Fold this sequence. Notes:
This protein is an alpha/beta fold. It has one domain (about 1-240): Spore Coat Polysaccharide Biosynthesis Protein SpsA, Chain A (Alpha-Beta Complex). Helix content is about 30%, strand content about 25%. The strands form three sheets. Strands 1, 4, 5, 6, 8, 9, 10, 11 and 12 form a nine-stranded mixed sheet that branches. Strands 2-3 form a two-stranded antiparallel sheet. A two-stranded antiparallel sheet has the order 7-13. Strand 2 (about 25-30) and strand 3 form a beta hairpin. Helix 3 crosses helix 5. The model has no long low-confidence stretch (mean pLDDT about 95).
Amino acid sequence: MKAVILCAGRGIRLLPYTREIPKCLLKFSTKSILEYAIENFKKVGIDKIMLVTGFKEERIKELIKERGYPHISYVTNHDYLRTNTAFSLHLALRQMDDDFILINGDVIFDWTILTDLLNHPKKNCVVVDNSIDLDEEEVKVITQNGIISRIGKDLNPAKCMGEAIGINKISRKTILPLINEFNSLEKNGELNHFFEKGFDILTHKSCPFGILLTDKPWAEIDTQDDFNYAKNKIYAKLYDKN
């Protein structure tokens, strides 16, 4: 089992915090979001981690070198300004040859979510929080019998059962089908999709994605409000337990 962390984006909604650093390097106390993610993976025995970088990637590489993290590889999304996470994942898939955990690089989360995901019987699985008040912003899921029938931001919140939190498990058998779908999208000039677009297409082609419901602490940091909420509420639950 390997891991892919997507950290190529510009993080415009987090300015001025992200003027000189990618948002995965935003700090909670003495460590960045990226450091917490890498350490979470190590807790569950995953140390081969691929980072998809773009904006200010040299800052990420400097941090990894300073911390001495082994087994870290890189793929660069040079088109990060005009693409989205589907394009970044596509770059990673071309170099991936095993089952892997895929996460967004702007998520801080309870490490035991990874344990639950690894133990989930489905080879493809999306972690979902069904306690969220859904609106247009979230990546939402519609399910049937524990299997995703639709996933994306553009779904009617009233028909959805929860938010995909940006932590996923993907089997090696799904790599090539995802590559094919992303190839088709990019040939059509569709470069700005979230990676869940690939999942959504495959759900209609006999490639099922299960769900893991979680009530454990997590936060996605897209805006200054998200960052403040994560610092004041979620970080305390995760790391200030004593």
